[in-house]
Design goal:
Layout: H1 11-29, E1 34-35, H2 37-44, H3 48-57, E2 68-69, H4 70-81, E3 87-92, H5 96-103, E4 112-119, E5 128-129, E6 132-133, E7 135-136, H6 140-147, E8 151-154, H7 161-170, E9 175-178, E10 191-194, H8 197-214
Parallel strand pairs: 3-4, 3-8, 4-7, 8-9, 9-10
Antiparallel strand pairs: 1-2, 5-6
The chain binds nicotinamide-adenine-dinucleotide.
Length: 215
C-alpha cells in the first residue's frame, strides 16, 4: 500500500497493532503459516470484530477459511506502523530512566534504534552506558542534523525538558518521545508523544479500588 493510499488509524488501533505483531512473530516461529483474526482475538482476549477491523486497516488480504498468510500480515503491520525501516533516535538525559531505556534491546524490533545518548553532567559525559559512550548535550543539535536523526527521547530533569526539546528541533528532529512530566511547546510539524507511568498507575489503582468495593 502506498503512503498516499494508506488509511489512518485511531490511537487504540495503533496501540493494539504491536501486540498483534508480537503474537504473529511468535506464531511464525512456531511454524504457523496462516493467522486468522479469530485466533489472534482469542489469544489476546480481544473482541474478534475489533481485531478484524484493525487488521483490515493495514491493507492485508485474508484467504477464505485460512486467514492471513503469516509473512503478508506481519509485513503489512510493519509497513503500516512505519517499522519496516528502523528509525535512528537520540536519547537525552542518562539518569535512572535514560539508562533503563538505553539497556532495552527491544526497541529495534519496534522500528527505533537509539544511536547516541547525551547528558550535561561532566560526571556522566564520556562514560559508557550499555556499550554507548555518553556525549555532551552541546554537540547534540549539530550531530542530529548531520546524521538526519528523526526521533528524540527526552529523559532529563523535568525543568530542562523544554530546552532539550528546543535543541532537538534545532537539530531537525521531528518526533519527540517525552518521558518527563513537562508539557512541551513545539511547532506544528513536530510530533509529540508523552509517556506517563503515573497515568497507567492511576488506571490500575482505580480498578483495584473498584474490585475491592465489589467484595
Ligand atoms: N515517564 C514516566 O513514567 C517517568 C517515570 C519516572 C521518571 N520520569 C521522568 O523522567 C525524567 C528523568 O528521571 P530520572 O529518574 O532518570 O532522573 P535523573 O535525575 O536520574 O536523570 C536525569 C538526567 O538528566 C540529565 N540532565 C539534566 N539537565 C540536562 C540537560 N540540560 N541536558 C542533558 N542532560 C541533562 C542529568 O544529568 C541526569 O543524568 C524526569 O523528568 C522524571 O520526572 C518519568
Amino acid at each position: 500500500m502506498s503512503q498516499m493510499e494508506q488509511k489512518t488509524a485511531g490511537v487504540p488501533t495503533l496501540k493494539r497493532l504491536p501486540l498483534y505483531l508480537r503474537l504473529l512473530r511468535r506464531m511464525k516461529e512456531n511454524g504457523d503459516e496462516y493467522a486468522s483474526g479469530t485466533v489472534v482475538a482469542k489469544e489476546l482476549g480481544l473482541d474478534p470484530i475489533v481485531v478484524r477491523k484493525d487488521l483490515a486497516i493495514t491493507g492485508a488480504v485474508g484467504r477464505p477459511r485460512l486467514g492471513f498468510p503469516m509473512d503478508e500480515i506481519i509485513e503489512a503491520i510493519e509497513e503500516f506502523l512505519g517499522w519496516s525501516n528502523t528509525t535512528d533516535a537520540f536519547l537525552v538525559g542518562v539518569g535512572n530512566m535514560g539508562r533503563a531505556l538505553l539497556g532495552y534491546q527491544g526497541f529495534e524490533q519496534h522500528g527505533m534504534r537509539i544511536v547516541a545518548a547525551f547528558d550535561s553532567s561532566p560526571e556522566i559525559i564520556g562514560t559508557k552506558v550499555h556499550g554507548k559512550t555518553i556525549l555532551d548535550i552541546e554537540t547534540m543539535p549539530a550531530l542530529a542534523k548531520r546524521m538526519h536523526v528523526q526521533i528524540g527521547v527526552i529523559t532529563v530533569t523535568a525543568s530542562v525538558a523544554q530546552d532539550v526539546a528546543n535543541a532537538m528541533i534545532e537539530g531537525g528532529i521531528r518526533g519527540i518521545w517525552n518521558f518527563t512530566p513537562t508539557s512541551l511547546d513545539v511547532p506544528k510539524h513536530v510530533i509529540l508523544q508523552r509517556e506517563e507511568l503515573a497515568s497507567s498507575l492511576a488506571v490500575l489503582s482505580h480498578r483495584l479500588l473498584l474490585e475491592g468495593s465489589a467484595d
